[in-house]
Write a structure and sequence with these properties.
6-stranded mixed β-sheet, 18 helices, flat, Nucleotidyltransferase, domain 5, 4 domains, 505 residues, alpha+beta, 42% helix, 14 strands
């Protein structure tokens, strides 16, 4: 191998020298049969090529195959000689499928954590940071008409002759291209929707008797789309119309049914998935990644990912930093149960310019609430909060509020001011008080480190899914995190020095 041609001090050179420390053939032996099949490309070579493709932002298997044949940097990183003929493009798809089935992508990523632990990179109890980021899906977003047509096609193709000729004949006109109708005419669109729904309902009735996942899955999606997107008009079900509004878990693509509408903020909508990332605040190593539905809340992903990271040998997280999306009481309670403290800024409370709830003194032990005017109430009534959890509503007497000189600054309600106290009131109040402490303020300022790491993962391809399916998108995220960690280990000196020197670096 003409090693002098390889870019010095590059990712490829380091992978050539130290790739065997995170990738070996023995790690992937269980992905292959001992007796069947023909000689194949060693799995360690395949995985190193996938890491190179991730590093170079290559999503095409054809281009990845070409690089394995002609690129000297890649050949050095893969550990092959100059005469290596390359890897066939379809081989990468098979390798990804094997890795997904056996969770070998997670094992690859965890090898970088094991290396960091062995090198003494992590310093005892860790402060970790969590955040999420949009991942645009690989499928095309479709309207209701195209969704119904797409799933009709899938059911007909999967069902084949097991479906009656009548059902197939009724669905056949809608299994091709978009029909040539006057899409500007509402009456024509509505009539076409009625035909689509009628054909779909007939097909669903047929498919219900076929016990085959290949038929059942697209049939369930077809039924879900009809239920989410279509409703009867005033004259009855014979005249369906597009439902107003968007269902919470609406299917948006027939080519990639796991895609969802999501929002990172009120002004930023995206279609695809949500990437969760936990990093170590000190070393800036990625500790864990996951890919969830785009419409899931950020807080829902905190504890599952935290538990996943805490299960790794040598990792003990005692403090978890997050933004306001992780400040919910349920999230704080669950993080505490997992063994860490959640540090996240509590959203400010407003009341349309009037006294907010935080201006009232809430005494949970005494079961009382005192207003800014100094009036105390113990009138506590059972209630439920916006999530349906038990809560207590403290009510001030209407006559007292009406006579109060501060009433115009407090409430417009004729029944008097009311204060809702939830199950997490003490926890949220303590967090709100703590965030005024200079030490907590300094800690929260370090949260921006995870944003820099997410930006790095996005540079490695995580702005957009390369594959269809949430599980394969998670594989993509794990490959990106593996590359990011491998490069970070080099910066920390974990490959080139003893443990004390690595820690100093």
């Amino acid at each position: 191998m003409r090693r002098h041609l390889v870019t010095k001090n590059s990712f490829y050179a380091r992978l050539a020298d130290h790739g065997h420390e995170i990738v070996t053939d023995e790690d992937y032996a269980h992905l292959y049969s001992e007796r069947k099949g023909r000689p194949s490309i060693p799995p360690s070579v395949m995985v190193r090529a996938m890491l190179c493709a991730t590093h170079d932002h290559i999503a095409s298997d054809a281009e990845t195959s070409r690089r394995t044949r002609v690129d000297a940097d890649w050949k050095a990183a893969m550990g092959v000689d100059d005469e290596f003929a390359g890897i066939g493009a379809t081989t990468f798809s098979l390798m990804r499928s094997r890795m997904v089935v056996h969770d070998a992508d997670a094992e690859l990523f965890e090898k970088t954590i094991e290396k960091a632990v062995a090198a003494g990179v992590f310093k005892g109890k860790l402060t970790a940071i969590i955040d999420s980021s949009p991942v645009h899906g690989a499928g095309a977003v479709a309207d209701t008409y195209e969704l119904v047509r797409g799933f009709l096609r899938q059911v007909v193709r999967a069902g084949g002759e097991r479906l009656s000729e009548e059902a197939r004949t009724a669905a056949e006109p809608f299994c091709g291209a978009k029909p040539d109708i006057d899409w500007q005419d509402p009456a024509v669109r509505k009539a076409h929707l009625g035909e689509l729904v009628a054909a779909g309902m007939a097909l669903l009735e047929e498919a219900a008797g076929i016990d085959d996942p290949a038929v059942r899955e697209p049939a369930e999606l077809l039924a879900q789309v009809i239920d989410q997107d279509v409703e009867a008009d005033e004259s009855g079900e014979a005249n369906p119309q597009i439902r107003q509004g968007v269902a919470r878990d609406r299917v948006i693509s027939h080519s990639h049914p796991e895609m969802r509408h999501g929002r990172k903020s009120a002004s930023r909508r995206f279609d695809g998935h949500k990437l969760d990332v936990i990093t170590d605040e000190d070393s800036e190593m990625v500790l864990g990644v996951d890919v969830r539905a785009a419409n899931a809340s950020d807080g829902e992903g905190a504890v599952p990912l935290l538990n996943q990271v805490m299960a790794l040998p040598g990792i003990l997280i005692t403090t978890l930093l997050g933004d306001m999306a992780y400040s919910d009481g349920d999230v704080r309670e669950a993080v505490e149960a997992a063994g860490a403290k959640m540090v996240a800024k509590v959203p400010p409370v407003s009341n349309g310019g009037r006294f907010p709830k935080t201006d009232f003194e809430i005494n949970l032990k005494a079961g009382s609430v005192t207003c800014p005017a100094g009036v105390t109430t113990t009138d506590a009534r059972p209630a439920t909060d916006h999530k349906g959890r038990p809560a207590t509503r403290f009510v001030f007497a209407p006559a007292t509020c009406a006579a109060c000189p501060l009433v115009t600054r407090c409430t417009k309600a004729k029944g008097g001011r009311q204060i809702m106290v939830g199950v997490h009131e003490a926890r949220i109040a303590a967090a709100r008080a703590a965030q005024a402490d200079p030490a907590t303020k300094a800690l929260l300022r370090r949260r921006c480190k995870v944003e820099r790491k997410i930006d790095h993962l996005q540079d490695l391809g995580m702005r957009k899914a390369h594959y269809r399916g949430r599980r394969k998108t998670r594989l993509q995220a794990l490959l990106a995190a593996t590359v990011a960690n491998f490069k970070r280990l080099g910066v920390l000196g974990a490959f080139d020095a003893s443990a004390p020197v690595a820690v100093a670096a």
